[in-house]
Amino acid sequence: MGQLSTSSKLYWVMCLALLGYGQAAQAQQMPVSRRFTVQVHYGAAGNFFASSFRDTPYELQRVNFLGTAGGGEVSYRVGKAGAVALAYTRSVNMDEKHLSYLTNWGTTQYVDFRLRYVNNAFQAIYERALTPDFKVHAGLLYMTTASQTLYPGPPNSYGAPYTTIDESNMGNNYPEEGGVVAGLEYSRPIDTRLRLGIKARGYYLISVRTFEMLTLTPTLSYSL
């Protein structure tokens, strides 16, 4: 095979340079044309309020501090570094309760229950990118709660304790609060549209002056 002439070499160098320039320009324009981002998140939740409850012989309602949190978010880019978003997060904190009792036959048995404390957090958020991979966010919070309480009672004819479970939710006494939410997120691109990251967010209820919970969730974002 013969060697390329100087003019041929120059031609191919110019073609490669133009191709590289076109790809770079397309990469720079790509984020501009993609204003919407859809994100899902799932991870851990630490509930300070629910774990502060104390069980008594007559009332059981405490749940574990660590639980799970998951949800989704839709954001719309405003300007070069800002975005507004609507988000939903559902957290669940649980604990198992074991009530021992002596049967009529002289043996020890247990009655097992699993109590749940559920938060539904609806958020309107403003996000600000500090770097291409790091952003902070803050906004308003509306939260509803479903919590369970176990009341041990006197033993029945078999010796087992007669128990009742009461749940407070939106269907009976409307447990709802308002507050603020804030946090930060770090993410990295895994292709031209997908980003993988991790997000920390705190939830403060102004209506009852309580720091409700903290979530730490991995995130997967898709740009439209």
UniProtKB/TrEMBL annotation:
Q: Which UniProt keywords apply?
A: Signal
List the signal peptide residues.
1-27
Q: What is this protein called?
A: Outer membrane protein beta-barrel domain-containing protein
**Organism (species):** Hymenobacter citatus
Query: What taxonomic lineage is listed for the species of origin?
Result: Bacteria, Pseudomonadati, Bacteroidota, Cytophagia, Cytophagales
